[in-house]
Specification:
3-stranded antiparallel beta sheet, Jelly Rolls, 26% helix, 5-stranded antiparallel beta sheet, 3 helices, homotrimer, elongated
Chain lengths: 131, 131, 131
């Protein structure tokens, strides 16, 4: 298992940041031909998803939908006021697994990998593990 | 890592298709005794989940609930009109990992594996990776 | 792949149970230095998530939010009356993957691992697989 950390900086409270090229670079450098990569977010108000990266309206619309799905609720107890972001992290998930075949990520034609910021702006880290 | 593609065809816009037997066949053919399988959906308006496959009312009810959770929103920008499906893909997720022990999938008694169509009918593919 | 089962007992219908220490114990016993662990829930009305375990208000608030996101719907057909719990299981997910580096789980500072009960109280099992 080869492990590396990459960094991203968000500039808004909610933001999808395309990290596909960063993940591809790590796969190339690893020289792994057949295997699998884990993309892991070590934060509790962020997540990682795989979705369309051709039209920027798609991450815009998913962000909008997640705000409707997980709004601020009057009954929340957590004093930091970001329980909506913790909930989004749990429903989207903090890791993704992608197969590697012939040295390439096995992504679909329209798929890209997005770091999902739900409580920015912040400096964040992402852990990549490949084997 | 042994990789194989399987195909499914959906016949409705939203549909859960049980692929448990197809995944089991691949595990059997692979001769892997102890390991893990990745079930990966390379599409951005579909997903894969593990849930009850004994009573067909369960996938029916989850599909119904997901339509309430992720409806069409007036503020969506994506011109294809399927942002609700992209959102469902992100909240359900495009991959699952299942352990293999003594040559068998480590599934619970009531668990089956479902391909989740959110923007059908379409011909879709699923990538299986085992090691 | 080393596989082990751990057990948890829930005492309410909805409950997040911190299993971080149980997972760490298994990692220590396994003597794996670099690798990955799969945490798999073989139930269809439960799940596993990674989120903040410092302030108990966070799992409280996520549970509350999930009840709003996935309520009981009049149109549900499943006669057991727990389709809201099946839906939560699908949106949270029944497994998590965590990297292991230098013999330790690669968790973020505030991250803990929670078994998510959505249809308790019950005795439940969790399968751990490490390699």
């Amino acid at each position: 298992m080869k492990i590396e950390q990459i960094n991203v900086s968000s500039s808004k409270r909610e933001e999808f940041i395309d990290i596909t090229h960063k993940v591809k670079n790590f796969v190339n450098e690893s020289k792994i031909i057949n295997g699998k990569i884990t993309i892991y977010v070590p934060h509790t108000t962020a997540a990682v998803t795989i979705n369309e990266n051709a039209d920027p309206s798609v991450p815009h619309d998913i962000t909008l939908a997640l705000n409707k799905i997980s709004p601020h609720l009057a009954q929340f107890r957590h004093l930091e006021g970001n329980s909506d972001a913790h909930t989004k992290s749990t429903i989207v998930g903090c890791s993704q697994e992608i197969l590697i075949s012939n040295g390439n990520l096995v992504l679909g034609t329209w798929q890209g990998i997005f770091f999902c910021e739900f409580d920015g702006p912040r400096n964040r880290k992402i852990i990549l593990g490949i084997a």
